[in-house]
Every structure is written in C-alpha cells, then in structure tokens.
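Annex B. Sample input.
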Amino acid sequence: MTEPIIAQKGPYVIDETAGKKAWCRCGRSQNQPYCDGSHKVTELKPIIVEVEAKRIAWCGCKHSGNKPFCDGTHKTL
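Annex B, continued. Sample output.
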C-alpha cells in the first residue's frame, strides 16, 4: 500500500462554500487540500465529501483518524 506524503504539518483552514469536495488523500496534489488527479500513480483515491458552507480544517498531514478533517494527529508526526 502506498503511504501518503505529508503535504503540511497542520490543517488547511478554509471558509468553504457548500458542495462536493474531493480531498487529496495522497499528498501529491499541487492544489492542496483538494485533489488534482496526482494520485493516479498511487493506490490512494481522494475522499469525496459533501460539505456545508462553513470554516473547515482539512487534514494536511494525511494521517488524521477523522479523514478528511484534521484531528490533531499532525502534532505527533
């Protein structure tokens, strides 16, 4: 299994608009925290979620136990 790359040791905090979002699971996207298709060279696929319009802390380290959202796991890496 391919391990994700740590894109950032902290969350991406974004004021989101409502709708479907594709969170980058592999860490290779140049459009973090969103998927840009870079995962195609891995076994990892993006996580698609429907979000409300609100501030969201997306996981940047790709190791959260609450993917795609930050749970503080980056503090232990």
